[in-house]
Structures are given as C-alpha cells and as structure tokens.
C-alpha cells in the first residue's frame, strides 16, 4: 500500500470555527496514527469569496494548535492549468460537455417534467444540453454521469451508496463565471498530491459519489474516506460560517482542541498542547484504526 497521505483543505472565506477544527484535528491524528504525511490545501478556487487575510488567519490558527503541515500549503487559485488539462481529457472522452442552462432554465425544465424537488438547495440537472446546445451559447461545462449506483465504504459511516444520475444529475466542472468547480478541483488535487485518505466533515459525504465517478473517468485512485461528526449550532443545524459560527479562539489552544476532541469521542487531555496531541494520537490508534484500515 502507498504511504499514507492525508490533507486538511479549508476554504478561506473566513477564520476556522469549532467545526473546522474537528476536521483538522481528525485528519492530523489520522495521518500521525498511520505514520503518514499531513498536508494543508487552501481551497480558494472560488476567488470572489476568498481573501488572503482569511488564509493568514487559518494558518495561524492551525499553528496555534500545533497542527503543522509536512509541506508548504498548496493554493487552488494557482492551479488552473491542471484543472484545464483534466477538463480537456474528459471532453476528449465524451465525458464532459458544454451547457447553456441558467438556474432558471433548469427550474423551468424540472417544473415542466413535474420534478420541482430541490436536493439541499441544489437542483437535479435534467440533462437538457446532453445532446447539444441547439444554437445557444455555452455557459458552463458539465460532467456526463455514468448510470448506476456508486458504492463505497466510509471508515466511520460504513457502507454508502448513491445514484448520482437520479440524485444529482450531470454536475458542473467549470462554472458560467469561468471559475473551476469544487468537484473537479478536489479530485485533481487529491490525485496530484497522492492523497490516500480523505478525512473531512460528514456534511461533505454527499460529494463522495460524484468524486468517485470523476476519479474513475480520469483514471486516478480513489482515496479512503472518513467523515467526522458535525458540530451543531443552537438551531440544530451544522455549525458553519453561513449560520454565524464564531471564529475559533486559539488563544487557549488546549481548550479549543479539547472541545474538538470531545466531538470525536476522545478523552480530555491536560498538560501542553504537544502532550495532548500525543495522548489523542494514541487514542485515535485504538478507536479508529480497525482491521483493514
């Protein structure tokens, strides 16, 4: 088996919050438990929403918690060339095609077909442009889904399955504004960095089947996945920047880390941050490195 490579990949749209630290700590612990490498990738491909100050804050917060990457961070905003190469390959394979549809077009097409249901606010694409643009101007590029159910086993959640064609539809690879979509960027970057294990929040588990289909189409390896428990806000929804999550206070890094560890089912630690991380590393090996991992 290839040497373990893990990564933490925050989007710099604001500072880390308590939920972000859960994913960061889990991915760091998993890498250390496997005697592997841990990387930090700054997912700033959505440049209008990202800023350098947030990146600086995130890196400082990680350093305060002694979660230090084994290599310099990679920035998605500087990686347009490999994303374009991947899109070109998919086009050549007939697995990507231009799309002229706006969101309103998709809503109208679904309504006309009696399919107005929205999935987590995301409209299931009805395949309008699969057969060509019909004289309309291209807005975006979409991935042509292979029919059938994608199955995988999550290290924490167990067996998972999704029919991407029915539940998502052909999804966007390059947006109408010219920016690269998350799904393509994350698959290309995981492959380029040799990532063997993806440890991230449970809210991202829904993306896995799409990424597996892309990995297969691009001929790259599929990592193992471990989706961590979520931190919930007072309203019962996932804690996030969108629902007012407070910036993580790392002036007392041990307290912040203990709160994250509690979400992961790990015991409270005292002493220095380094001693606490060593204690959690031992616990992680016992709790999460099951036979077959």
Automatic annotation (TrEMBL):
<feature type="short sequence motif" description="'HIGH' region">
    <location>
        <begin position="10"/>
        <end position="20"/>
    </location>
</feature>
<dbReference type="InterPro" id="IPR020058">
    <property type="entry name" value="Glu/Gln-tRNA-synth_Ib_cat-dom"/>
</dbReference>
<protein>
    <recommendedName>
        <fullName>Glutamyl-Q tRNA(Asp) synthetase</fullName>
        <ecNumber>6.1.1.-</ecNumber>
    </recommendedName>
</protein>
<dbReference type="GO" id="GO:0005829">
    <property type="term" value="C:cytosol"/>
</dbReference>
<feature type="binding site">
    <location>
        <position position="241"/>
    </location>
    <ligand>
        <name>ATP</name>
    </ligand>
</feature>
<keyword id="KW-0648">Protein biosynthesis</keyword>
<feature type="short sequence motif" description="'KMSKS' region">
    <location>
        <begin position="238"/>
        <end position="242"/>
    </location>
</feature>
<keyword id="KW-0067">ATP-binding</keyword>
<feature type="binding site">
    <location>
        <position position="101"/>
    </location>
    <ligand>
        <name>Zn(2+)</name>
    </ligand>
</feature>
<feature type="binding site">
    <location>
        <position position="200"/>
    </location>
    <ligand>
        <name>L-glutamate</name>
    </ligand>
</feature>
<dbReference type="GO" id="GO:0006424">
    <property type="term" value="P:glutamyl-tRNA aminoacylation"/>
</dbReference>
<keyword id="KW-0436">Ligase</keyword>
<dbReference type="Pfam" id="PF00749">
    <property type="entry name" value="tRNA-synt_1c"/>
</dbReference>
<keyword id="KW-0479">Metal-binding</keyword>
<dbReference type="InterPro" id="IPR049940">
    <property type="entry name" value="GluQ/Sye"/>
</dbReference>
<comment type="function">
    <text>Catalyzes the tRNA-independent activation of glutamate in presence of ATP and the subsequent transfer of glutamate onto a tRNA(Asp). Glutamate is transferred on the 2-amino-5-(4,5-dihydroxy-2-cyclopenten-1-yl) moiety of the queuosine in the wobble position of the QUC anticodon.</text>
</comment>
<feature type="binding site">
    <location>
        <position position="43"/>
    </location>
    <ligand>
        <name>L-glutamate</name>
    </ligand>
</feature>
<comment type="similarity">
    <text>Belongs to the class-I aminoacyl-tRNA synthetase family. GluQ subfamily.</text>
</comment>
<feature type="binding site">
    <location>
        <position position="125"/>
    </location>
    <ligand>
        <name>Zn(2+)</name>
    </ligand>
</feature>
<dbReference type="GO" id="GO:0008270">
    <property type="term" value="F:zinc ion binding"/>
</dbReference>
<dbReference type="InterPro" id="IPR014729">
    <property type="entry name" value="Rossmann-like_a/b/a_fold"/>
</dbReference>
<feature type="domain" description="Glutamyl/glutaminyl-tRNA synthetase class Ib catalytic">
    <location>
        <begin position="7"/>
        <end position="249"/>
    </location>
</feature>
<keyword id="KW-0862">Zinc</keyword>
<dbReference type="GO" id="GO:0004818">
    <property type="term" value="F:glutamate-tRNA ligase activity"/>
</dbReference>
<dbReference type="InterPro" id="IPR022380">
    <property type="entry name" value="Glu-Q_tRNA(Asp)_Synthase"/>
</dbReference>
<dbReference type="InterPro" id="IPR000924">
    <property type="entry name" value="Glu/Gln-tRNA-synth"/>
</dbReference>
<feature type="binding site">
    <location>
        <position position="129"/>
    </location>
    <ligand>
        <name>Zn(2+)</name>
    </ligand>
</feature>
<keyword id="KW-0547">Nucleotide-binding</keyword>
<feature type="binding site">
    <location>
        <position position="182"/>
    </location>
    <ligand>
        <name>L-glutamate</name>
    </ligand>
</feature>
<dbReference type="GO" id="GO:0006400">
    <property type="term" value="P:tRNA modification"/>
</dbReference>
<keyword id="KW-0030">Aminoacyl-tRNA synthetase</keyword>
<feature type="binding site">
    <location>
        <begin position="7"/>
        <end position="11"/>
    </location>
    <ligand>
        <name>L-glutamate</name>
    </ligand>
</feature>
<dbReference type="GO" id="GO:0005524">
    <property type="term" value="F:ATP binding"/>
</dbReference>
<feature type="binding site">
    <location>
        <position position="99"/>
    </location>
    <ligand>
        <name>Zn(2+)</name>
    </ligand>
</feature>
């Amino acid at each position: 088996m290839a040497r373990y490579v893990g990564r933490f990949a925050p989007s710099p749209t604001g500072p880390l919050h308590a939920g972000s630290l859960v994913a960061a700590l889990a991915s760091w612990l998993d890498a250390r438990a496997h005697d592997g490498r841990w990387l930090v990738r700054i997912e700033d491909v959505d440049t209008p929403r990202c800023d350098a100050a947030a990146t600086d804050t995130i890196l400082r917060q990680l350093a305060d918690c002694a979660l230090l990457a084994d290599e310099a961070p990679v920035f998605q905003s500087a990686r347009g060339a490999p994303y374009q190469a991947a899109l070109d390959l998919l086009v050549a394979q007939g697995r990507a095609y231009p799309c002229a549809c706006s969101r309103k077009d998709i809503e109208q097409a679904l309504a006309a077909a009696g399919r107005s249901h929205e999935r987590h606010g995301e409209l299931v694409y009805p395949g309008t442009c699969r057969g060509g643009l019909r004289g309309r101007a291209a807005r975006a590029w979409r991935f042509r889904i292979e029919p059938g159910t994608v199955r995988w086993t999550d290290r924490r959640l167990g067996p998972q399955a999704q029919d991407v064609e029915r539940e998502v539809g052909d999804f966007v690879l390059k947006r109408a504004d010219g920016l690269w979509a998350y799904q393509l960027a994350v698959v290309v970057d995981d492959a380029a960095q040799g990532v063997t294990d993806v440890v991230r929040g449970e809210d991202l588990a829904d993306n896995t089947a799409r990424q597996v289909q892309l990995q297969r189409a691009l001929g790259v390896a599929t990592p193992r996945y471990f989706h961590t428990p979520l931190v919930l806000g007072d309203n019962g929804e996932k804690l996030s920047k969108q629902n007012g999550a407070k910036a993580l206070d790392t002036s007392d890094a041990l307290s912040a880390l203990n709160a994250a560890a509690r979400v992961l089912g790990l015991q409270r630690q005292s002493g220095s941050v380094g001693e606490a991380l060593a204690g959690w590393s031992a616990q992680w090996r016992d709790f999460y490195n099951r036979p077959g991992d």
